[in-house]
From TrEMBL:
Keywords, comma-separated and alphabetical: Cell membrane, Electron transport, Heme, Iron, Membrane, Metal-binding, Repeat, Respiratory chain, Translocase, Transmembrane, Transmembrane helix, Transport
Subunit-structure text: The cytochrome bc1 complex is composed of a cytochrome b (QcrB), the Rieske iron-sulfur protein (QcrA) and a diheme cytochrome c (QcrC) subunit.
Name this protein carries in UniProt: Cytochrome bc1 complex cytochrome c subunit
EC class of the enzyme, as a word: translocase
Organism: Actinoplanes awajinensis subsp. mycoplanecinus
GO molecular function: heme binding; iron ion binding; quinol-cytochrome-c reductase activity
């Protein structure tokens, strides 16, 4: 049996220190490995998605530059610099597209005079050219849906099949809010669906594409561009041009309710006076 000399004890202590790293060394090693893993993941992500970090330095077109001046003078207080939005005042315009701007600004709904249940249509504050310039600026800084160029419905008005399909699509998707005669109607919380009597094809197309106010968005995957044009054709020919397809008096075009009330009141009045006349003669 060997004696436990001081030299042997020092050798055992030295061996333990070399074989088992201290807690501080373990923590430092773990931190180094974590940083290396994060750096590797970041490098791989950057290599495979370079577009996410590329800054868009594309210059604005002439129309967009003119639209930016109008935007900075009239819209920036609510929608923020570069259309980023202002909390509790105005939403971001990134991704809304030129179609939304042409509808909201072109119908006078924007700029709003005050915060209320919904923006009502009024006389536009910008000319059609200025509206398109603002729309082009919003389109170039954020992208989004656009109204197709050219005539939307002229080639469909003489097509009875397109008119029939447009009527069916209108009855399925639009009448619950705008009524069968396109007169509009009340919604909840002081909101309402506007009348379609004076809406232009571009306004109707933009409304379906962007879903303003309380209207749902009917994207091209829900209602195709051709189907949108057929709906507009039906609205133009059967609601706007043919003012009263059911007779001489439209009675608000709210459906059978007003017609029933009118017939009842007029009929009762005639019957009462007829009865009085018969009684007087007898």
């Amino acid at each position: 049996m060997t004696s436990d000399t001081p030299a042997r004890r020092r050798a055992r202590v030295f061996s333990r220190r070399r074989g088992a790293p201290s807690r501080a060394r373990r923590r430092i090693g773990a931190a180094v490995r974590m940083l290396a893993a994060l750096a590797l993941a970041g490098g791989v992500y950057t290599a495979f998605t370079p577009g996410a970090f590329a800054e868009d330095n594309t210059p604005l077109s002439t129309a967009a530059q003119q639209g930016k001046e109008l935007f900075d003078n009239s819209c920036i207080s609510c929608h923020g610099r570069d259309g980023q939005g202002v909390e509790a005042r105005g939403p971001s315009l990134i991704g809304v597209g030129s179609a939304s701007v042409e509808f909201q600004v072109g119908t006078g709904r924007m700029p709003m005079t005050r915060q209320e249940a919904q923006a009502e249509q009024k006389a536009p504050q910008f000319t059609p050219d200025e509206t398109k310039q603002i729309a082009q600026y919003v389109q170039e800084i954020g992208g989004g849906p656009e109204i197709p160029a050219g005539e939307l419905t002229e080639d469909l008005k003489a097509n009875p099949d397109a008119l029939a399909r447009g009527g069916e699509l209108f009855r399925v998707n639009c009448t619950s809010c705008h009524s069968f005669g396109g007169a509009g109607g009340a919604l909840s919380s002081g909101k309402f669906a506007p009348s379609l009597g004076d809406a232009t094809p571009e306004e109707i197309y933009a409304a379906m594409l962007t879903g303003p106010q309380n209207m749902p968005v009917f994207g091209d995957n829900q209602i195709s561009p051709d189907e949108k044009r057929e709906i507009i054709t039906y609205i133009q020919t059967q609601i706007q041009d043919d003012k009263d397809p059911g007779g001489v008096f439209n009675l608000g075009r709210y459906g059978p309710a007003t017609e029933g009330v009118a017939i009842f009141l007029i009929g009762i009045t005639i019957l009462v006076f007829t009865s009085l006349w018969i009684a007087g003669k007898s």
